[in-house]
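Lecture notes, continued. The same structure-token format from the folding unit now serves as the input rather than the output. Read the line below as a description of shape only.
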């Protein structure tokens, strides 16, 4: 859809510095380059993230018109940032904006638009100060966006119902959107805790600033979250575009992944069709070792074949002891390729949004074990809204741990092709798989939305003066 106007356009993309944000941002940048042959994109990352991407060979795979630019390492290292999550959030808020603004000012080719991660609190102001249109990119589910947008209407954490009462109460009783009926008040109760007081203050700031953006892009797709997307269209004062599923088509495992790939590909090829449970709990938020041990023993009891991406040395040792010929433990893999392998029949996941979208794209049912943030909402969508999986969080003991017996029973149920509930999940997962593929194909909902975004950008409909009238 190339136009003369678009050929002169330059978009500067600024992702939040984390794997779950950088990956989808890069995918959207690829999509933009594919949608218009004249559009140039500069992606701004820290020097550390540039090195991580380079080690994985990512720059070489990007289109010629998508290039990387760096700012200094003004924030804590990606390695071990989970040890002080709140400190990392504050560093991104306080220290990252200034070097990004300096980069914007010294670019040889002025930015015609800035595509900035929604969670970057200073992003909208940086563009507005320069008269540059700001396109906010939301890398989590639209449903979670809708819930956070109405943060001021959430029930208090110390309400009269208590934890037990709130566990069954839906968020739509406080926020009048039916799509939020699947989200329980207990799912968002954690956000009201003292430990998250400062991060939630930043979230409130993000959504206050967002009302000044020229548009918002979502990495979801309409058929998956139509209710939330319709709801957002009603409340946001700017255009929205759904361009997903923005699936990361590259791994960040680097040479390690290349070493492992031959081994795990051969192992998967040797397994019967629809017999393997794929397991990964992401790269950032960690589970207690006691819970990981319960998962390991529950798997052992179920006798199901499994493929586990494990980075905890103690758990890896335990898994290797119980795996025998029924399991394989690796430190990293190309997740989408593994999920798409014929032998894989289920996915035990922390329900990060990228992992959830990849499971939907591959048509694989999910056994959800969410830990924090949007994962709790994602797990509700998986089990209650889309009905493509089981939410293990509902089956925790009083100490917050899911027992090995519960895990074994859930794994057995999910992987049993003769089980009626499992069959229904697979039928629904296949329907969503087809919908996700159709959305990004020519003429699909996300294809149309992406091209509308490129056209609106080229025609100046997203310019600051136009959208502020």
């Amino acid at each position: 859809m190339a136009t003369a106007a678009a050929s002169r356009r330059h978009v500067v993309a600024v992702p939040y510095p984390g794997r779950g944000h950088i990956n989808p941002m890069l995918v959207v940048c690829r999509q933009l380059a594919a949608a218009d042959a004249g559009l140039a994109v500069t992606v701004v990352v820290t020097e550390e993230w540039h090195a991580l991407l380079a080690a994985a060979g990512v720059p070489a795979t990007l289109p010629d018109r998508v290039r990387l630019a760096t700012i200094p390492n003004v924030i804590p290292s990606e390695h071990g940032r989970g040890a002080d999550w709140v400190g990392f959030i504050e560093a991104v808020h306080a220290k990252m904006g200034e070097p990004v603004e300096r980069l914007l000012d010294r670019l040889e080719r002025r930015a015609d638009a800035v595509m900035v991660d929604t969670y970057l609190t200073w992003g909208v102001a940086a563009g507005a100060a320069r008269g540059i249109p700001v396109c906010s990119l939301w890398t989590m589910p639209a449903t979670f966006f809708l819930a956070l947008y109405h943060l001021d209407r959430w029930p208090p954490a110390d309400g009269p119902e208590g934890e037990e009462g709130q566990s069954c109460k839906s968020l739509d009783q406080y926020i009048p959107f039916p799509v939020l009926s699947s989200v329980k008040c207990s799912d968002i109760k954690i956000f009201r805790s003292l430990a998250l007081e400062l991060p939630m203050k930043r979230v409130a700031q993000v959504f206050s600033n967002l009302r000044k953006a020229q548009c918002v892009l979502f990495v979801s797709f309409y058929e998956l979250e139509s209710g939330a997307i319709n709801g957002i269209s009603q409340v946001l004062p700017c255009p929205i575009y759904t361009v997903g599923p923005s699936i990361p088509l590259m791994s960040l495992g680097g040479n390690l992944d290349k070493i492992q790939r031959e081994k795990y590909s051969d192992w998967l090829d040797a397994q019967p069709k629809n017999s393997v449970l794929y397991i990964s709990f992401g790269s950032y938020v960690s589970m207690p070792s006691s819970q990981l041990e319960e998962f390991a023993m529950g798997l052992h009891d179920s006798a199901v074949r499994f493929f586990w991406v494990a980075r905890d040395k103690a758990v890896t040792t335990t898994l290797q002891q119980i795996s025998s010929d029924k399991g394989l433990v690796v430190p990293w893999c190309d997740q989408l390729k593994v999920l798409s392998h014929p032998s894989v029949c289920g996915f035990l996941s922390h329900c990060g949004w990228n992992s959830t979208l990849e499971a939907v794209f591959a048509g694989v049912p999910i056994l959800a074990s969410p830990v924090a943030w949007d994962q709790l909402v994602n797990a509700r969508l998986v089990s209650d809204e889309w009905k493509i999986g089981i939410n293990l969080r509902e089956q925790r003991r009083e100490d917050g741990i899911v027992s090995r017996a519960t895990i074994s029973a859930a794994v057995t149920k999910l992987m049993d092709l003769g089980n009626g509930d499992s069959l229904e999940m697979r039928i629904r997962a296949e329907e969503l798989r087809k919908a996700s593929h159709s959305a990004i194909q020519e003429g699909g909902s996300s294809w149309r939305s992406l091209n509308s975004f490129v056209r609106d950008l080229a025609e100046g409909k997203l310019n600051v003066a136009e959208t502020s009238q």
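Point for the exam: The chain has 21 helices and 13 strands.
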